UniProtKB/TrEMBL annotation:
UniProt keyword annotation of Methyltransferase present: no
Transmembrane found in the keyword field: yes
Mode of membrane association: Multi-pass membrane protein
Domain RDD: 5-128
Sequence intervals crossing the membrane: 12-33, 45-63, 96-115
InterPro entries hit by this protein: Pra-immunoreactive, RDD
Protein known as: RDD family protein
Compartment annotation: Cell membrane
PANTHER family: LMO1584 PROTEIN, PROLINE-RICH ANTIGEN HOMOLOG-RELATED
Keyword field: Cell membrane, Membrane, Transmembrane, Transmembrane helix
A family per Pfam: RDD
Organism of origin: Alkalicoccobacillus plakortidis
Amino acid sequence: MDYKPAGFWIRFVATLIDGFIVAIVGLILSYIFQDPPGDIDNSTSANTFTFIYSVVFIIYLTASKYKGTPGKLIVGIQVLSIHHEKIGIGRSIGRFFATILSGIIFYIGFIMAGFTEDKKALHDMICGTRVVYRKK
C-alpha cells in the first residue's frame, strides 16, 4: 500500500489544533487547581498537570489505533513506521523526545519536512517513522 507523505504545512496545522486542545485543558486545570481560587500566579500544579497531560496525550494517541493526535485525525494524517505499520508505545515515546531535538535549533528539524523528498522531519528520521495521509 502506497501512502502520500504529509508535508510541513499540514503537519503544522495539526500541531496548532493539538496546541489549542492542550491550551483549553490547561486553562481548565489552572482554574481547578488555583490555590487560593483566583490567584493566577500560583498555578504550578496546573502547569505540571498540563505538561503531563500533553505528554500522555501525544504519546498514547500516536501509538493507539488512531495513529495520531486529534489534530492529525482532523486534518487526515497519521503516524506510521517506515514499513507502513502502527507504531508501538516505545517508538512513540522516542518520537516525542526526538521532537524536542527537532525544535532545539530554530525548529530546523521540523522545517526539514518541507524540503526532504519523503517529507520527513528530523524526529521521523531518528525514530523510523513517517507522517502520511490517511487512506479514504
